[in-house]
Amino acid sequence: MIRKAAAEETLELPVSLRSDTTEEFATESTTPHTASKPRAELDRLANRDLAKVLELGQKTFGEPVIPFTLDWVGEFLLGQNSRGPIARGLPSQPPVRYIDAESHRQGMVFGMCEYQITLRTGDCRVINLIQQTSQKCPSFTRDVWLVAERQFLALYYKLRRLEKARSQVVAPLMQDSLRERLWKNTIGVLTRNAASMKALGVAIRRGMLLRGEPGNGKTMAARWLKYEAEKRRLAWKSISIAHFRAAQHRCEIGELLSLGSPGIIFFDDFDELIRRREENHNSTDICTLLNELDGIDRRYGTVFLFASNLQWNEIDHALRRPGRIDLMIEFTKPNVELRRQLMEIHWSEILRRQIDIPLAVSQTEGMSFAELEELKTLLAMQHFDEEEIDWNRALAEFQSRRTETAKKPIGFGAI
Question: What region holds the ATPase AAA-type core domain (predicted)?
Fold first, then answer.
């Protein structure tokens, strides 16, 4: 995520930079007796540039600095959890900006971008040097970051904590009552209620259907359940149509659907198989699935979790009866409250500061979570390219794309 470049060492370059510049110097040295020149020349240039960076950092911060590089994850986390960027020039020099009239974009080609991030030791300045380079004049400091030496470790551990928190799966955005029902009938059945159900002689088995149009949170809910199940050491198995077909060919459906310990079996994208037999040409497949589900060893608690885009009446009637699917949870397009929660809680502070949340919520009526995610991406791209956000322009671009997609022909007519 973050790598320090020591002053006494050659600056460690990203592979992309190292290969480009090495190749350039190699083309200038084609004779055998100069074969060792490119590497030595690269080392000299790298040390020269690093010395200039340290001198610049000392003047800017007024104290010793540490130069370092960030991968894209570290850069994303820093940008999402800091104030900025603020465009600044080098000492005694203004920033050099560019304007692209054709694409309506502007940005900076030479200068510094400053961020302010709060650490446990207090506020911290982090600077990213920006300079465009040419093939004739390569530079090894075009993607170097600077921070005060005394704050480097605190920044490092801050990014470590942010990355750890990022890897955790948050609860899906849905009505509280529906989320509670989802929890009680999956994780709750396998943990808190297991002993009571055993004492009552009830088989610990549950079938659930997550139903709704694509892009409205079914996958998000399944991902959250998987995370919560594994955190409690419950078994989890995801089964696709391809897995089912392969196991059916080998006569191993029973092994495919066995867990050996309490857990959840997730049937992902099984619409082709669970559709009504009147509309399904492979009716033997649903019979095979039902027979195997009924024959699963009941000594262990098992929850069958199906995710489907089908309407309830399109699903085979035999699968809909109690004991196979006991509960269906509908995932509809987010209402006003869920859209507001999405923007206020899950969108970056950088985006939230530059848009009118109530207006954005009202203007996104009828959008799915996936469509809202696409709109957020357009806003983020505006910020990266222009360092500012225009909500109306992003919304107009999104609507234009959606209209073009709806009109675009499919198949050979698109060629």
Answer: 208-332
